Amino acid sequence: MNYDHLATHLPIHKAALSDDWESVSQIFEKDPELMTKPMSYLGETPLMMAVGTNNSHHFVKRLVDRILAVGDTDRLFVTSSRGDNPLHRAAMTGNTIDAEVLVEQNPGMTRVPNSDGYTPLNLAAWHRNKGTLRYLLRVMAGLVPEEEGSSPYTGVAGGNLITLVIEAGFLDIALEIIGKHPDIAIEEDMNSKTALEVLGSKPGLFPSGSTYGFWSRLIYSS
Question: What is the extent of the structural domain holding 202?
Fold first, then answer.
């Protein structure tokens, strides 16, 4: 078995995890394909590994700039063997800094689900990364309206989003979303649950144990 690839893959892997762009800059200059090549056992690219640390921000910015410079823009969002792209990873780790770098290149990727059907919005809510969730919601608000049937606020996609936001305990964000998209409150998620059902089963979300205040505001917003 040939292990020659380890001579380049291991240093790149280490550099991505330790925010050490300088140690691999020349490697990428000699072989640009390595910048977007899967290198871990999960099929992660150097960009995805670096984003996942939520600490290698210098490495991410320099790598994205270099990928753009060689014209490989379409390779920025290569997916892992689990179906995640770098923006999904940023949402999971609460990495808003690198999410902004990625979204600047392709805002539409905020709508793209992974192989499990979760968008970056869903993942930010699921992992309780409130700052990243708010950022992604702002990006979504600025996008051109989707084609009918593809909105993240309707159908199962909408049900997943609002129930995950409520499960995370972000009731302020839930109210904001419902205020703008009232029908999302009755959309069913992938488990056939609606926002109203999830709320009714979680009195612990409210310090007083009563949901009346929230229900009142929900009714008015809807």
Answer: 151-222
**Burial of residue 192, with CB atoms counted within 10 A of its CB: 0-12 exposed, 13-18 middle, 19 or more buried:** exposed
pLDDT in tens, 172-191: 999 999 999 999 999 999 99
Quote the CA–CA distance of 48 and 68 in Å, as a whole number: 16
pLDDT tens digits along 79-112: 999 899 999 999 999 999 999 999 999 999 998 9
Q: What is the reported pTM?
A: 0.86
**Do residue 88 and residue 46 come from a single domain?**
yes
114 shares a domain with 49: yes
Q: How would you label 84-109 residue by residue, b for 16+ Cβ within 10 Å and e otherwise?
A: bbbbbbbbbbbbbbbbebbbeeeeeb
Decide if 47 contacts 83 (C-beta within 8 A).
no
Residue at token pair 């144990």: 209
Domain match, 115 and 199 both: no
* Contacts for 7 with CB less than 8 Å, ≥ 6 apart: none
